[in-house]
Description:
Blueprint: H1 3-16, H2 19-28, H3 44-58, H4 62-75, H5 80-87, H6 93-99, H7 103-110, E1 118-123, E2 128-134, H8 140-155, E3 158-166, E4 171-179
Antiparallel strand pairs: 1-2, 2-4, 3-4
Helix pairs in contact: 1-2, 1-3, 2-3, 4-8
Amino acid sequence: MHGLVNRALECFLRDTYSPALWVEVARDARLGFDSFEPMLIYDPSETEAVIAAAGARLARPREALLEDVGTYLVSHPTTEPLRRLLRFGGVTFTDFLHSLDDLPDRARLALPELDLPDLRLTGQGQQRFRLICASPIAGMGYVMMGLLRAMADDYGVLVMLDHRGLTAEGEVVSIVLLDAAFSAGRPFDLAERLG
């Protein structure tokens, strides 16, 4: 597993809860180190150990914890560059959804060894979509639900998301766009404002 994925999990725990909680989770997971290096490759068992240790420490189900990670990836001030990258996926939330298929390949252009979940979106009729999320880490569909929920808020749309379980293709997330103009959404400009 690429260090960036593990580092995101570490930063979520540090930023959302506390650096002290991260120290406890790293110890409980028996990592043998204090922090993940973003550019190294780690065994997926270390990722699994961190998820299990964090869930136990926080008394949170794995699914809820992973959904919170997905929300964090888009909504926390320290992850603004990722939010900006995702917003380049389209002017509307529907455009953004259709850009998800290409997201892993676009990420690999910058980091060839980055192993993001494979994503495949299919239309299911009027404003309904099905997202398949295939990953070696169980629960990445919940991470995508958190990310999609945060991006829907970012675009100002109202969506209903439901994790439909695991198929041979991967985890299935159902997406229903209820209101494309629910709120104003967060401001976004292609040119980043400095200062």
